[in-house]
Protein: TGF-beta family profile domain-containing protein
Amino acid sequence: MQASLRPSTPPYYALGPPKTLLNSMAPDAAPASCCVPARLSPISILYIDAANNVVYKQYEDMVVEACGCR
Structure:
């Protein structure tokens, strides 16, 4: 597969789980997690359907681009 066609996953850092664990053990030690998606982008899918047609679909709001507090 050509390099330009290979899927890539950007690096993400998960700070929520440790903070949630700390909050469950000592609620006053850290505020509750509040990270929610703030900006979303579409994802494009290319596939072959049951009739052997190449189908392109774009699904809105599928990729989280930024998080924020609620």
In short: The longest helix spans residues 16-25. The two ends are 41 Å apart (CA to CA).
